[in-house]
């Protein structure tokens, strides 16, 4: 019996069908239905392509010989691994481009093959956007692929909601037409899409060469920058909202949703939706990738967020130092507090090993010994910076230890005498004066920057110590006047705001200090923190954020500014 192809031009769901019963379902009860049978699929497609108005979709399918690109998508599911996948074949300029990818999202996996077909349709839309196509025709065999997007079915699950949201974000940039085909009906390209989906899951032997999508290529090849930022959803949402507001005053943040193996942040600017995908990797790092139609806005947000994180640009390093009695336990407790208890302890032969994981995902390992020594292992990121600053307060830790640790972790080659001489040159009066020696231990890693010969992606590891030293210096000046900053007394108990939003010492302490120059020195330092982009305030506590610094000159400028501020205010306050 000859095979017939039934083309529904106007009906409940226009498309090509492979049995009369399927066709009849689409036209029965539909006023003005137009349909016809053909001996070849090409004739059926040409018949549909002549249509100028598809009632159900309000979309036009132009002749396939025009610039319209066709995409066949299908999904598959592996019940053994609970993974799902999509297969996609793009027909463009006489080429057949084959794509496939698998996912392990448990919630979406409950939809089995449909989850994969959703991802395939998304991939087809993304291909159109990334390649600046004006039009794409998506052939699919599950009717929800079109109906969720067109509002004929309500999207109830998170996966279908995200799919509809993605479609809405690109529909005004690309003319998207959906055409339903019957599954497993000897349609050449639909069958290839099905095989691709199964191949990537390992269900069938490899028979197709699969291209790597631009999205996956960027991630695999490291083109998308990886960084350490908070992994807590609420905090991450707040970070993205705050960053977006720093760019657009009228931005509306719409939160973060799980979308397959990644998360997606949605925001709206001037009525246009933009999407930023968030990949939280197993090694603690996060990669951001703009997606959807409004790539420009998403790219701006991505760049701004990357400046608020920590770059993972260095290898794991280690250094051992003597910290003295009680300081091993103090250091462990301090880091445990920073990590909100996210620490694992292992009792090993001759020592204990602690693994700390911060809110932003970076790790630091401490090996602690009974002779009061600590071996620190990790990268020069947030936790390492905090560790080095904290142990600087131990009387048993010398500048020599801090410089040696810095040389090891950041690949510098600075002699301790050279470091002392540089600090003396930068701050001659203050360095020779009565400043607490801890301040110089805190500052010392910053002077090693001049010995860095190689280019770095991020120089913030050099500015952090200088800013931390300035914080310690401010506390030192306050302590000299019997004003203590501790857990019970933050900077908000010392400083207030005037009518110009400038920080000023409160009247009680102005009276107690009884020295105008001293008060002005305190205010100058505190206002520097208030206006520095690398510092944030939380409950009137100074938090050195070490935002990414890609330019060595900017890092040098910050260090010099801090040194000049210490020298200038010391001369003014200490007479």
From TrEMBL:
One of its GO terms (biological process) is DNA replication, removal of RNA primer. GO terms for molecular function: metal ion binding; nucleic acid binding; RNA-DNA hybrid ribonuclease activity. Its cofactor is Mg(2+). InterPro entries: Ribosomal_bL9/RNase_H1_N, RNase_H, RNase_H1_N, RNase_H1_N_sf, RNaseH-like_sf, RNaseH_domain, RNaseH_sf, RnlA/LsoA-toxin_DBD. Transmembrane segments: none annotated. Keywords: Endonuclease, Hydrolase, Magnesium, Metal-binding, Nuclease. It catalyses: Endonucleolytic cleavage to 5'-phosphomonoester. Residues 65-202 form the RNase H type-1 domain. Pfam families: Cauli_VI, RNase_H, RnlA-toxin_DBD. It is an enzyme of class 3 (hydrolase). The keyword Repeat does not apply. Its EC number is 3.1.26.4. PROSITE patterns: RNASE_H_1. Belongs to the RNase H family. Endonuclease that specifically degrades the RNA of RNA-DNA hybrids. This is Ribonuclease H. It comes from Dorea formicigenerans.
